[in-house]
Amino acid sequence: MSESSAEVVEAVTGATASAGGSWRIAGIAGAAIGVVAAGAAAGVAIERMTVGRGMRRKARLALDSTGPYGTLRGAPGKAHADDGTALHYEVDDIEPEGGTVPRRRRLFGRKAPAPVTVVFSHGYCLNQDSWHFQRAALRGVVRTVHWDQRSHGRSARGMAQAEGTPVTIDQLGRDLKAVIDAAAPEGPLVLVGHSMGGMTVMALADQYPELIRDRVVGVALVGTSSGRLGEVNFGLPVAGVNAVRRILPGVLKALGQQAELVERGRRATADLFAGIIKRYSFASRDVDPAVARFAERMIEGTPIDVVAEFYPAFTDHDKTKALARFAELPVLVLAGIQDLVTPSEHSEAIAGLLPDAELVLVPDAGHLVMLEHPEVVTDRLADLLMRSGAVPAGATVGGYGSTSTVQPG
Description:
By secondary structure, the chain is α/β, with parallel strands linked by helices. The protein is built from 16 helices and ten strands. It has helices at 3-17, 23-38, 53-64, 132-138, 159-162, 169-183, 196-207, 209-215, 238-256, 259-268, 270-281, 289-300, 304-316, 344-353, 369-372, 374-387, and strands spanning 75-80, 86-92, 106-107, 110-111, 117-121, 143-147, 189-194, 216-222, 331-336, 358-362. Helix 14 links the parallel strand 9 (331-336) and strand 10. Helix 4 (132-138) crosses helix 16 and helix 7 packs across helix 8 (209-215). The longest helix has 19 residues, at 238-256. It is globular and about 60 Å long.
């Protein structure tokens, strides 16, 4: 086992053994494991920072007020999952000049066809704000729905999980169906999912093939996988990965039962947490620090017990057969080449089963490719929307900004 792997294993096992005592060590383990679930795996050597802790804290506070990231809001709504969990969603509708969209459009006395709705599903330990750049670019161009997965963002904690029922990807697919029924009950749909959100889209297709056949006109799968996630090594040596996998389920369970303790530790080890996130979320060296901090806030906002509830679902995830539901549709499959969480090989495997899909592999990009290279993701998504008829050819998509600190000359 490498030295870095051994350090993390030691920290994690130590946190389990002394959960009632050393909250700082528990926090390090909680931070690392939280990022594993979100898309930033534990088990790497963290760069030692030389700037004083007080200065770094001030820098984080300054970055929190920098940029508009996560500030976009739409018309709020609430859907209810089959177990009663309240799911928060927001609609960005198309507003005609000088007025709002009437609830019921009419054309020559008849109800006009419902517009195409693009439904965005986010990844694990993130929330709907992770689509910030794409949301900003598409405002006014097409109707969009952004929602928070159960126990994430503004959605309620899963009621079934409170009663001891494990989370499954199938449950998330049913949650997405509840959101669609509430926010877009009619009209064509384009489904967009990142990481766990892409798995959610696959689970929807697996359980509701008639919905895909009758209403879905396009699909985008970003940095996701149809299965075999248990084989991902997160960039670690084989020995280190095997060691972490052996202890991770028990550690997660223990940390989930000590949520308050671990959350205190996560706050105290924010520097370590930020280092892990940047390493496993982004590949570019020049990512805007405000964007990196934005990602950090989303991930650190996910309680450790939620991390513990969701983690086992990924090992069981296998929706390879469900991909056939998309065979006749315009499909975009996009991934960062340096994604250590859901490696681009998984996207290549998906595209291999959908030979008519557009496969885009983004160089110098990690797991959060839609934040790291928004210009690429937005451009390819706009093209998908045109191919699927969601927007007319030649439509102008709004500016998407840049996450690079290096500006064009």
